Amino acid sequence: EPAARKALFPSACVDLMGFNGADFARYPFFAWSGDTRMCYRCTRGAFQARARSAHFGVYRSADFRVAVEPGPGEAGGGLLGGEGRPVYEGHGCGLLVGSALTAVACAQVVGAADRGPYLAWSRATRLCFACTARQLDQRNRDEGFDIYAVEGVLAHIPSPPSPPVPPAPLAPPPAPWPTADPRTGVVFPGQGCGSFVAYGVHSAADCARAVRAYAPAGLLPPALSWSGSDSACFACSA
User: Fold this and answer.
1) Are residues 2 and 31 in contact, defined by beta-carbon separation less than 8 angstroms?
2) Which of 45, 110, 137, 194 is the one with CA 20 to 30 A from 104?
3) What is the pLDDT of residues 176-189, one digit of tens each?
């Protein structure tokens, strides 16, 4: 009898099939396929009528009953991978909790939800599994996954620098304009700028009046550019 959902590892079948106390007596065994990832409940009669298949394994349901887990430090002693390295490479375990871009992100999700002291994470698929100590013991060989201790990974998250890196310095203020010629009012002789206002303007004073008339109320440009050779007037922003 197939379960409603697939399981990447046989250790997840019992939980995904929703077994309760009575189900362990009704279905004392289950079969799991590494090809299809499907779980199948097996009565005692179905177990006795089993057929040989290279695509299935048969497991005792009671061996995968999720029990109360030992407290921190009571299970998995000596298994921690140094510096956050995997506890078991090429193995998977537990129940899917979601996807995570890194093993650190997976550890943060599993740790925040208090789903178990271990995790299985796949670099290829980014799938993240939470594993109890019992599920760790029932781990399954899978080259796509590695198993980590949650605390071992979280303990090696880089700390922020101390003292904090100072912010980048602000850009220097713009250089002040040079002093205008007291006779002509010219600031940058021989240079032009700005948006065209009018032709036929015969003096810088006339250009200033044209710019004042051209500008919207309250938005008078701070400078102007005037050409005596072609009588062109331009309004210049800062």
Assistant:
1) no
2) 137
3) 878 888 888 888 88
Omega of the bond leading into 163 within 30 degrees of 0 (cis): yes
> Over the chain, what HEC string results?
CEEEEECCCHHHHHHHCCCCHHHHHHCCEEEEECCCCEEEEECHHHHHCCCCCCCEEEEEHHHHCCCCCCCCCCCCCCCCCHHHCCCEEEEECCEEEEECCCHHHHHHHHHHHCCCCEEEECCCCCEEEEECHHHHHCCEEEEEEEEEEHHHHHCCCCCCCCCCCCCCCCCCCCCCCCCCCCCCCCCCCCCCCCEEEECCCCCHHHHHHHHHHHCCCCCCCCEEEEECCCCEEEEECC
Q: Which amino acid is at 68?
A: V
Query: Which residues 6+ apart lie within 8 Å of 42 measured at CB?
Result: 1, 27, 28, 29, 30, 31, 50, 58
Give dist(CA 148, CA 117) in Å, integer: 9
Q: Is the pTM of this model over 0.85?
A: no
Q: What are φ and ψ of residue 130, in 5° steps?
A: -100, 135
- Residue owning tokens 């990974």: 153
Q: What is the pLDDT of residue 163?
A: 66
Quick one: pLDDT at residue 146? 92
Q: Are strands 95-99 and 232-236 parallel, antiparallel or unpaired?
A: unpaired
Alpha-carbon span 226 to 200, nearest angstrom: 11
